[in-house]
Design brief:
Elements lengths: L1 E3 L1 H15 L18 E2 L4 H6 L18 E9 L4 E3 L10 E2 L5 E8 L9 E8 L1 E2 L2 E5 L32 E5 L18 H27 L5 E7 L1 H12 L6 E5 L5 H13 L9 H15 L13 H7 L18 H10 L3 E2 L10 E2 L18 H6 L14 H14 L16 H11 L7 H5 L3 E7 L7 H15 L1 H5 L2 E6 L15 H11 L6 E6 L7 E9 L3 E4 L10 E4 L1
Parallel strand pairs: 9-10, 9-11, 11-12, 12-15, 15-16
Antiparallel strand pairs: 1-4, 2-8, 3-6, 4-5, 6-7, 7-10, 13-14, 16-18, 17-18, 19-20
């Protein structure tokens, strides 16, 4: 690991902002933050911190049925310097951001059902507090590990301080279960309370406990509360706005798993179509990737290795042009492979309406098929196809979608750990599928209560995301507009799309100061417009490789003139 001091970090932040146009028409953190208010843990922070563990937080302080919250530890932590690890599941996860000394509180919320696991939580209290809090969403997939609240927020710029270092109280949870060695990650779903906690309840319960702790520490509750989450955490963010509209002032939902139930079914379908001759290896993946670029790369005015408008590209890209005239080859696709791609890009039709009347889950789009990843090809390689054709039981090198959907069908829908997924028909389990949909799917388009309370919501979809379809988030946004009207939605919701960026933030400019934009909107009424997106090196000092404007949907970047790596050379165009 390499370390970097806070002083150097702040110097680099100012240099990068000046070089990349952060003060020239793109919204950023400048001018949106205020100095920490004069609230602290007292003259003796160590004693003030330790005192927080003195008594439990009663269940009466929690807005959902639960047991008491017990504080396991409350200690002052030494400052943390910036560091970069060699490997991690995502670029941002490699970074340990700098933190000042703080009070770390770890505890648990007891369940109502004694056979259910407790909800673990961590609340980090700055010694100088700015009067606000940020709750982090789940860690991804099926969660199952404690989110510390010490990392960068989703899509956060690598060269800017994390929320705790800005003076925010930060909050995280394990969502009510811990993945145990040797057990399936979804084993917890056998317990109804644990599954409801995973679906939505744990985040509300931990939110309420964090408010009680903040009152103990500083004498008052946060003036403003924010929720930030990615993937599973992004789904949670939408559900907070839908189920608990009074709890958060601002929510950032990144690549949200909208329509969780539909996604699990389309993932299973995507695996089944490649169990035989439809499977494709790295050569075929690159073939499709290159063909998409040849068709659409220059459509935005410049050939720069990035498809700026993948929606328009999907409408004109024809995978059938890659079909082999004779035998199979690395330079063409067989008829079975072409059919697999067409199926992958088409919607899954539900045999009955899911929660909120949803009847389908959209297929995937084009671009980023061969985005580099860990271990083997990224894009399709990691999420869809894996390093080998799907097997039963799934192998570790099968695609994530196949492994995830198998686990869900067995442990959630059929509740039979030995079920043969090839025999699964959702009609046979309709009651359970609907029950799960009502718990898990963040598809309710009625955000009127969140709007009436003054809440603000920012959603970001990465258009080369193959873990979940970005078209699901776009479809959800359209459903909110249809329900509430475009004028009302524009007053409190923003949807952005990032071309070329995959689920974990690789492939294109995807580092954005979303917390700065969100807090400025909530607290100062600064309506976010076009934002600045950076593609940064995952190495100190986090040098920018490229910048683009992050456009509001349905606009996308279009080249004007100048350096193709500078944001100012592009404009957002519909």
């Amino acid at each position: 690991m390499k370390t970097f001091t806070n002083k150097h970090l702040l110097i680099w932040t100012s240099i990068a902002t000046a070089l990349l146009g952060g003060s020239s028409g793109y919204a950023n953190a400048s001018g949106t933050k205020t100095a920490p208010v004069a609230l602290s843990l007292g003259a003796d922070p160590a004693a003030g911190c330790a005192a927080l563990a003195g008594s439990p937080i009663p269940a009466s302080a929690i807005g959902l049925p639960s047991g008491n919250a017990t504080i396991d530890s409350a200690v002052i932590q030494a400052p943390i310097e910036v560091a970069v690890a060699e490997r991690a599941p995502s670029p941002a996860a490699r970074i340990t951001p700098a933190q000042p000394s703080f009070c770390r509180v770890i505890g648990r919320i007891a369940p109502v059902d004694p056979s259910a696991p407790p909800i673990m939580f961590q609340v980090n209290l700055p010694l100088q507090w700015n009067g606000r809090s940020v709750q982090y969403g789940g860690g991804g997939g099926f969660n199952g590990s404690l989110v510390t609240g010490l990392r960068l927020i989703p899509v956060g710029r690598f060269d800017q301080p994390a929320p705790l270092a800005q003076g925010y109280v930060t909050v995280g949870t394990d969502s009510g279960h811990q993945t145990a060695p040797g057990q399936p990650p979804l084993a917890f779903a056998a317990n109804d309370e644990a599954f409801v906690n995973f679906a939505h309840a744990s985040y509300k319960k931990v939110r309420d406990v964090s408010v009680a702790l903040t009152r103990r520490a500083y004498g008052r509750a946060p003036a403003k509360m924010y929720y930030v989450g990615s993937s599973t955490g992004g789904r949670e963010g939408l559900i907070m706005a839908q189920r608990y509209p009074a709890d958060f002032d601002g929510i950032f939902s990144n690549v949200p798993v909208v329509g969780w139930t539909g996604l699990m079914h389309v993932m299973a379908r995507s695996g089944l179509i490649t169990m035989g001759d439809g499977w494709m290896g790295p050569a075929q993946i690159k073939l499709v990737h290159d063909a998409v670029l040849a068709t659409c790369d220059a459509a935005d005015g410049v050939a720069d290795g990035l498809v700026a408008n993948p929606v328009a590209c999907k409408a004109i890209f024809d995978v059938r042009k890659l079909q082999c005239a004779a035998g199979a080859s690395d330079n063409c696709l067989t008829a079975a492979q072409v059919q697999a791609v067409q199926t992958y890009q088409s919607s899954w039709k539900a045999p009955f309406a899911l929660d909120n009347g949803v009847t389908q889950y959209p297929g995937w789009g084009v671009s980023g098929e061969a985005t580099p990843g860990a271990g083997f090809s990224g894009g399709w390689g990691i999420w869809w196809l894996g390093a080998s054709a799907p097997t039963l039981p799934p192998r570790p090198d099968n695609g994530n979608s196949w492994r995830f959907s198998n686990a869900v069908i067995q442990h959630v829908f059929t509740r039979d750990a030995n079920f043969d997924v090839r025999k699964y028909r959702p009609e046979d389990y309709a009651a359970r599928v609907l029950e799960v949909s009502r718990l898990m799917d963040g598809t309710n388009p009625d955000l009127s209560a969140f709007h009436a309370k003054g809440g603000k919501l920012i959603v970001l979809e990465n258009m080369s995301d193959y873990a979940q379809s970005p078209y699901a988030g776009i479809g959800y946004y359209d459903s909110v507009v249809s329900r509430m009207g475009r004028g009302a939605v524009k007053s409190f919701v923003r949807l952005y799309t990032a071309p070329g960026v995959d689920h974990t933030g690789s492939g294109g400019p995807g580092n954005v100061d979303m917390l700065g934009a969100l807090s400025a909107w909530v607290e100062q009424g600064k309506v976010p417009g076009t934002l600045l997106a950076l593609d940064q090196e995952v190495a100190i000092p986090f040098a920018p490789r490229r910048a683009l404007p992050l456009c509001e949907w349905p606009a996308s970047p279009r080249y004007k003139e100048g350096d193709v790596k500078a944001a100012g050379s592009f404009e957002c165009s519909k």
